[in-house]
Every structure is written in C-alpha cells, then in structure tokens.
Description:
The chain is 35% helix and 12% strand. With 323 residues, the protein is of the alpha/beta class. Helix 10 (250-259) links the parallel strand 8 (237-241) and strand 9. Helix 1 packs parallel to helix 11 and helix 4 crosses helix 6. The longest helix has 18 residues, at 298-315.
Amino acid sequence: xxxxxxxxxxxxxxxxRQQCRDTREHREPAQPRQPVPREPxxxxxxxxxxxxxxxxxxxQAQVLALVRAQGDHRGAPVGRLGVxxxxxxxxxxxxxxxxxxxxxxxxxxxxxxxxxxxxxLLLRGAYAATxxxxxxxxxxxxxxxxxxxxxxxxxxxGFGGIGRLAGRLGRTLGMRVIGFDPQIAPYAxxxxxxxxxxxxxxxxxxEADVVTLHVPLxxxxxxxxxxxxxxxxxxxxxxxxxxxxxxxxEAAVAAALKTGQLGGAALDVFEQEPLPAGSPLxxxxxxxxxxxxxxxxxxxxxxxxxxxxxxxxxxxxxxKTTG
Length: 323
C-alpha cells in the first residue's frame, strides 16, 4: 500500500481540491475513513486550535495522530497548503520519515502585490475619503499632500523570494530598493542581480521610506521591530508586515502611529489572530489591517493547490495530476 498523504489545512481552490482527490484515486481504491484519536489541544472536527502566533499549532498533533491511526507512514508526505512551517512539528515528522512539502513561491506574487498596493495607499492617504465625498464634503486641501511612490526608497527586511519580488515591483514603479538579510553576505551576487543595495538593519530603517518585512518568526526575530527600532525609522515612513505577527511589537507600532513617527502601517499578521478585545491597534490612524490574507488570492490558491498536489504525487511516485 502506498502511504497516505496528509494535507495541512488552508483554503484550497476547487481545482486544487480536485487534484488532491485525483491524487488519492491514483493511490488506491477508496477505503473507510479511520477516526483520528483525540489529542490534547485539538478540535475533533477540524484538528485546529488557535495559537499565540496566529497559526494553528494543533495541526502538529493532528498530523501525528493521523500517522499513529493509520499505521506505518514512513515516506508519507505532509503537504502544507501555504509557506510557513511553524504550525507543523517538522522535527517530529523528520524522525518518522515524513517529508514536509511547503508551497514555496506559489503565493509570492500575491504578497508582493499586497506590499506595493499598501505602500501606495498609505503614502497617498486619499482613499478613506469616499464616505465624506459621497456626503457632499470636499476635503481637497486636506488630501492634496499625498506622497508618490516613485522616487521613494523601499527597505526589504528578509531578501528571500517574496522580498526580492516586492523589490522588483517597486523598482518597476520607480522606487530605489535597499535590503537586509543576515543570511546573505553583503558582497553576494544576488544583491547586484536584483539591483538592490545591501544595508545593515539599523541603516536601512533610518533611510527607507517604506519598510517591508519578510522574515520567519524565530527567537532572534521576535519583536525585531520594537519601540527602539521604530524610533530609528525615518519620520513619517511606512511599515508593512506580511511575515509573522510576532516580528513586530504591536503596542509599539500603535504608539508610533499615534505620535506620527510612523506615517502609516499595514499589518496582515498578528501575535494573536483574531485580534483580542482591547488590542492597542484599535483606533489607530493611518493603519490598514487585514486578516492574514496577503498571500491568498483566487490565482494564488490555484497555484498553491496545484503545486502541492503535484509535489505530493511526485513524492508518492504517482502520475502527475493535471489542472
């Protein structure tokens, strides 16, 4: 019997769900579904529980429970319908010979477009006027000091695939791009290939008009952007976080928005998701909040689902599915 693949939860598109069904049909005839043993912290219906980092660490227990319930799954892949792996116990999977397959790169364009769109909205500052204009107000003088994206400096913190793509889109619109990544040497060719100047983090924060974060959440990046670093940023600059919620200190961001040190912020990820009652972000000016959807579009859902279905099929040595 070929090992059964496990797909970690995410909103898969209909075409991707069909590909996953096709993959299972290639594997073996349909068999009765085995009940999953209840694990601490796991909802029996969905296998999810809410975590501090805005992810679902209960998936770890769900995946391992499936392994135990269905027998010897050495070689069985876990397809992650997303990019981050902090909701999967990768070490435990590795110990059991389970390959973990993320959808690396499949949602990069969606995130990069979110970054540039957010920067344009926040720099221009005009798009919240709809209700007032519809009511007959005419705040033309107030909204005539918006800023253009062209000529501004984009600071990319974390120069992986998404950060590089955000930089390319920014350059297309006339931005100068600088970057920081402790994993990439300042003299590495990738910087010149991407027409980006390598900076130290503090220097980047002091010079960039727009700072976009693309780093994983680790002990070294937790609250990477705190009150001290926010104070180092160029006054009136824009902060965009589509990485992980814990990378920024939300209370410090709220304070910087209220004082005007930050000219605006777009946050798609949070330390606790959904935001709790009494969040310091409530009522902040020049703030865009979205519910962890920067990488989720109709097109990216198709790419993510198709990529994972094909990679799982390849890991099981099955015929490639067609979308």
